[in-house]
Amino acid sequence: MRSCWVKPFCLVLAGALLLSPVGWWGASVAKAATSIEHSPPVADTVLSAGNIHKTIGTYGFEQGNSNGWKPRGTYTQIASVTEAAYGGTHSLKATARTAAWNGAELDVKSLLQPDVEYEISGYVKLDGHSAAPSMVKLTVEQQPTGGTTTWKTVAQTETADTSWIKLQGKYTFTGGMDALKLYVESSNPAQAYYVDEVEITQVSKTPTEPTNGIVSGFEEGTAQGWVSRMGAETVQVSDADARSGSYSLLTTGRQKTYAGPKLDVTATMQKGSRYTVSAWVKLAPGEQPAKVRLSVQRDHQGDSAYETVVGDTATTTGGWMHLFGTYTLAHDADTVSMYLETAEGTSSFYMDDFELSLVPPLAIEKDIPSLHGLYGGQFSIGTAIEAFQTEGAYGELVLKHFNSVVAGNAMKPISLQPSEGQFHWEEADQIVQYARQHGLEIRFHTLVWHNQTGEWMFKDKNGQPMTPTAENKKLLLDRLETHIRAVAARYKNVITDWDVVNEVIDPDQPDGMRRSKWYQITGTDYIEKAFRVTREAAGPNARLFINDYNTHEPKKRDFLYNLVRDLLAKGVPIDGVGHQSHIRLEFPAISEIEQSIEKFASLGLDNQITELDMGLYSNDTDRYETIPESMLIRQAHRYRALFDMFSRQQDHISNVTIWGTDDGNTWLSTFPIARLDKPLLFDERLKAKYAYWALADPSKVPPLPAGNNE
User: Fold this and answer.
1) What pTM value is reported for the model?
2) Are 193 and 91 in contact (CB under 8 A)?
3) 312 alpha-carbon distance from chain centroid
4) Which residue in 100, 284, 418, 425 could disulfide with 348, CB within 3.0 to 4.6 Å?
């Protein structure tokens, strides 16, 4: 495909595990997935692997700010200082205390979850000796919803000297809380103190049921868990402007585009659950127009991945702009954070009325015709899925309507082998096991691609970028063969159809060949090598495909046709052509798609429609807040015309795969820009659209709007 399923899901393998090829049912090894960054890793959160020893937050104050801590008490002052430190060069100093409970506090409501046990620790140092010992405590102020405020001691110790002391204890709470504030107190109100290296660690399993969500309106005058992402910028509550109420969150002093306010949402989000995300933003006075976006950082086993939830949104000083999107946590994560950033520049901005809400559980319509049953005897009907969609309502939808599956991301080169010799099989195996259990065909996507392939593949023996030499050509082709043989050995006789090479044609080149790193180093030899090795490794019954997009375009089609014809003449084992078919409401003409299918069929080749979706926009810039019903009606009629053509060509087509289960899981939500698009047959609630009914029962689809003629 031209891009990934949504924004590429990325985790880089940690650890060095070598795996000899075994059957697909063999044990998985260390996890990894694709890695495409739009922000650098953040060092202010230490991550721990495992489900029940997970670091929720660490606070060392090394960036010279308070790391989200606030003064507790009317006259209390706090500041990051260098005059004392337990670790590093900074600590947080609390001065001007007038009561024992005065000091430094941290809003932990968004960090902690009911019925989960946490270990909280930190180091405290008194500023000057005292005549009498002081009782120093770590305490949590709890404000239960509809209840009375209580104070729970986490740890305490008595001291009279000025050495660093460690406070450490366990904490848990039950029920809903309007506020949770962690603070350091001392029985001597006249004495200042330092605090450093505070750490909050989850030590019991998270309840299986996800919480409802998070609302940040800042009306309590606190940041409600929002902190500086990079440490250099200042994130603070402001009453200078607000969309509602009296307060908003102001971020200033940004030095990077990806610097901004962040919120740890780990305790709220559950893998496989879907959420709506909403926030309002406005630039601070004097700033030039900027594009603001809302993103997610997922951290797992020490590595980070970045996903755009709401894309670049034009924002000014003149009014509040709404950022709204949906997000599904599809992969394992030790911590998940949401943050705001800009496409370019470092404008200061306000944020208000943030809301993260759990989407109610999904359910499929069980009393409607099966989609694959409509085309039984003609071709199989497939869909692209992620591992999490093998369960729950998504899994039910797949079994109801499809008899073939393909992995949206889990089988791409960087997903399976992100580092040389280090394979990640878990998510791919989960999809394969699900398909075998339910008798589904499996397409493999993809063995060779210029995109989403580990950089290591194109480094020479010294770790430098490859240049076109005979030595590098041999090394690259050897690596290609090793990868293919490892994958094919695992899934031989299990996966039927293989996308061997993907997107090798560029019609703007004189010879039509994409100037990928593969081509730069090996010419077209990598294509021939890939097919020959796959035939040897996957066996004579495997069906091998060359896959590409825009195969309806005559110029590109002809370049691909000539390449395949010449390879066949050399005895290269190619069984078919995969037509991605990412089409739009306005184009291409269905007749062009049909002509391409017939042209490749003339070579005796099978054809598969491998990544079908139908975007509603005619350009790369428009954006709808709500899709007009007339467009969905036009889409339905076009889907019907398209499948009628597929039926005419059933002798030349063995599979039609739709690129996604539903409109809530489409790569077109972020490509070519972040926007609402509805390109598939089922909506984001898994309900049948007009597009589905156009195939199952056209009488349920309204006629084309006036002036349209499909």
Assistant:
1) 0.67
2) no
3) 17
4) 284
